[in-house]
Amino acid sequence: NILLKGTPGTGKSTLGLELSERLKFDYICVGDIAKKEELYNGYDEEYQCPFLDEDKVVDELEERLSRGKCIVDYHSCEFFPERWFDIVFVLRTDTNILYDRLEKRGYSEKKLQDNVQCEIFQTILEEARSSYREEIVHELKSNVPSDMESNIERIVEWTKLYRTNNGLS
């Protein structure tokens, strides 16, 4: 299983969907599943979004992830069991590019600023490093389309090598 993390707007969904097609893995966008299955426990008025019920998310995903060959897309990770993931990729985007992407999504000024600060302070990367073994956490630049293609190639190659080394088909 592969975990894709990053501040909103770094390209997790685009990367995850393309990887799932190339690798024939299941693509799991935690936000989409939470919405579909109503895995919430309240609402944040300040950010205008629901609070994720992390326990319900773990319960919902446990069986799928235990089968393997999944790509999980979410910005946070501290509530996921470490055993779920063989590798974690954290997408990073230059803040001026990130700001423009989030502005196009219609984010409020507060949400824009908070997400850009999150990227400046490497909050998502540090969370991954504190939640998983250092050797499975990898930082990837995600600024331009050529970054996306090189990230896809890198992850596809890593997956092939991992599966070969572990006797998996």
TrEMBL record:
One of its GO terms (cellular component) is cytoplasm. ATP binds at G9, G11, K12, S13, T14, R105. Residues 29-52 are annotated as: NMPbind. GO terms for biological process: ribosomal small subunit biogenesis; rRNA processing. Its EC number is 2.7.4.3. It comes from the Eukaryota. It catalyses: ATP + H2O = ADP + phosphate + H(+); AMP + ATP = 2 ADP. Residues 104-114 are annotated as: LID. It holds the Pfam family AAA_18. Monomer and homodimer. Interacts with small ribosomal subunit protein uS11. Not a structural component of 43S pre-ribosomes, but transiently interacts with them by binding to uS11. Belongs to the adenylate kinase family. AK6 subfamily. PANTHER family: ADENYLATE KINASE ISOENZYME 6, POS9-ACTIVATING FACTOR FAP7-RELATED. Broad-specificity nucleoside monophosphate (NMP) kinase that catalyzes the reversible transfer of the terminal phosphate group between nucleoside triphosphates and monophosphates. Has also ATPase activity. Involved in the late cytoplasmic maturation steps of the 40S ribosomal particles, specifically 18S rRNA maturation. While NMP activity is not required for ribosome maturation, ATPase activity is. Associates transiently with small ribosomal subunit protein uS11. ATP hydrolysis breaks the interaction with uS11. This is Adenylate kinase isoenzyme 6 homolog. The lineage of its organism: Eukaryota, Metazoa, Spiralia, Lophotrochozoa, Annelida.
